[in-house]
């Protein structure tokens, strides 16, 4: 194939065991070259991705994509998970202030109300632990990635200069979603049996929660569907190269194919509607129709 026939994609993709083979060139495509953005943490680029269409190919938080899709997006969603995990370990409280048995009426910090991890956590808190999402005061530190979205009335912004961890330590928050944080001094997991709780949740909901999926520029999908096929193939091959690291079956955090992510995706859509992140449900088949039309059985 002549060099002029190759397509170079400006790409946003984090580095982890499942992407390493692609990013180091061990997995290659005869059709596509990847110009990987020099970005340490991918979520810092989600705002320019959805507001400015900055990248040709990118990982994107699922809630961010759903909000962009509802407003009209220039990206096609691929059923390729590049970040997924159980979420029960991500919420903490300050044990020095005594036990925290009920979040209703309390103040809980989260980086942004629209953060996908926050949506998952609020979802299982409401579903399994009796938390009324609208009776919690959600304290945020960042805006939504998608323009024109406004947080609900039960969400407030932290004072300028405050940080989520320090507010929790100082007693200005009763709990906080800190992500992959380790127990640190008085900061303890709110759900002490979080590992088993996460496994049980995954069994009931068709798999570990999906956080980031891949998107590709709509114009590329329309003009060069063969590029979409090549991208999906190398992403899948790169993930397979790290198969020894990840659990399989429903515990697999990086599932490919609509059938394997459907239940998790539809659960998140339901949570997003309940939490006023979306105004109405969206159909999984509709959202992935463009990708399936190009990829066919490979993405089912």
Report on this model:
The protein is α/β, with parallel strands linked by helices and 300 residues long. The protein has two domains: 3-84 and 209-299, D-Maltodextrin-Binding Protein, domain 2; 91-204, D-Maltodextrin-Binding Protein, domain 2 (3-Layer(aba) Sandwich). 35% of the residues lie in helices and 18% in strands. It has helices spanning 17-23, 46-52, 62-71, 116-129, 164-169, 194-204, 218-223, 225-240, 258-274, 284-287, 289-295, and strands spanning 7-12, 32-36, 57-61, 75-84, 91-94, 107-110, 137-140, 155-157, 175-177, 187-189, 210-217. The mean pLDDT is 95.
Features:
300 residues; alpha/beta; D-Maltodextrin-Binding Protein, domain 2; 2 domains; 6-stranded mixed sheet; 11 helices; 18% strand; globular
């Amino acid at each position: 194939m002549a060099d002029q026939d190759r397509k170079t994609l400006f790409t946003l993709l984090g580095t982890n065991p499942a992407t390493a083979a692609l990013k180091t060139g061990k997995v290659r495509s005869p059709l596509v070259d990847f110009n990987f953005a020099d970005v340490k943490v991918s979520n810092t680029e989600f705002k320019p991705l959805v507001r400015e269409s900055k990248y040709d190919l990118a990982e994107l938080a699922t809630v961010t994509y759903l909000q962009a899709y509802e407003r009209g997006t220039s990206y096609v969603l691929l059923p390729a998970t590049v970040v997924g995990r159980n979420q029960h370990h991500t919420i903490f409280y300050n044990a020095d202030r005594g036990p925290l048995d009920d979040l209703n009426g309390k103040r809980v910090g989260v980086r942004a109300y629209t953060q996908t991890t926050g949506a998952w956590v609020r979802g299982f808190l409401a579903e399994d632990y009796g938390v009324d999402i609208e009776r919690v005061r959600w304290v945020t530190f960042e805006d939504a990635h998608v323009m024109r979205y406004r947080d609900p009335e039960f969400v407030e912004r932290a004072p300028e200069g405050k940080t989520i961890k320090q507010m929790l330590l100082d007693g200005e928050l009763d709990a906080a979603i800190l992500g992959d944080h380790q127990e640190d001094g008085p900061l303890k997991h709110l759900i002490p049996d979080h590992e088993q709780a996460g496994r049980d949740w995954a069994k009931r909901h068709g798999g570990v929660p999906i956080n980031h999926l891949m998107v590709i520029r709509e114009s590329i999908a329309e003009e060069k569907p063969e590029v979409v096929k090549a991208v999906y193939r190398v992403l899948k091959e790169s993930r397979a190269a790290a198969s020894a690291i990840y659990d399989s079956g429903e515990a697999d955090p990086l599932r490919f194919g609509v059938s394997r992510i459907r239940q998790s995706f539809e659960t998140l859509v339901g949570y997003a509607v309940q939490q006023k992140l979306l105004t109405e449900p969206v159909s999984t088949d509709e959202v992935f129709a463009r990708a399936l039309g190009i990829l066919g059985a490979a993405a089912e």
